[in-house]
Amino acid sequence: MAHLTPQELKKVFQFQKPEGREHLRRLLNWEKFDEVGDSRKSILLDTLYESIIFAVGKGFPWVEVVEVVKFTEEILKETKGCSITEAVTILGNKLRDYQGQFNTTHLLALCDYFHNTFLRHYKLYQYVLGQDQEVNLTVTHLEVCSPPEPLPLAEGKDSDLWKHEQQVAEFSMEEVQKRTNMLLLKEALHLEQEHKLQQYFSEEEPAQQGRVLKREELENLIKEAIHIQIECLQELLQYEIQVTYDILDLKLRKKTLKLNAPVPFPLSITGQPGQDESLKFNKANKGKKEKGKRAKGKK
After folding, report:
1. DSSP letter at 121?
2. What span, in angstroms and rounded, lies between the C-alpha atoms of 147 and 270?
3. What's the pTM value of the predicted model, to 2 decimals?
4. pLDDT on residue 270
5. Which of 28, 163, 281, 290 maximizes the CB count within 10 A of its CB?
């Protein structure tokens, strides 16, 4: 064991446990080790650290605390691989050897401490500290994405008000979409009308090419062209009526939603009309009372 001094062990005790263990490791001249991978060394360091905490808690002088750490390390080494009976014998002999280092009260406290910790869990100590352990360790690196920077609280909105605005925006977007669909349908029907007329006249043209059309034939051509136009206009008119009805329904729902908009929270004190009127009334009333007192004083 490295040369430990009361002053250094006092620092170990004054630190928080992680810093105290690290300082004790440096005092023992141990190299840095992996707490998870080298569990034996980690448990051994814990045992020595806990012996310091025990001794200070029981009121041992700092000189005796050094002896307690030394006593602990010797017991752990000398009982390695021994049976429980042999360990009890070694502990008894070791207590007799240290009679000159502790008074009777502290010696009995040290005996109780090792009986209730080391001997009570002796097999566990032997299993961990007395033989090599096979460690199967799987390390997985996970990327943790930090949350986005929150906006200032002054820019925040009440949840009910935010939901209301989202609903209004959805109605507006739906109205725009319906108007866009109507324009697209107009364009599609216009192209379809041109295609039908072109197809019809291309079918009639070979039979009538090179001769003058009769009145009936011309009337039939005009009637068919008008029929094609009426079909397209009828389909467009039906769609426009339905879209107009849907848009009016959306406008009505949006208007109703705006009328039932939630009140922003929190309300500013100066923005409460009832409170402003109350303050004005109280000031006026106070002024009248003061005038009345002055009038009585003059009389």
Report:
1. T
2. 36
3. 0.45
4. 47
5. 28
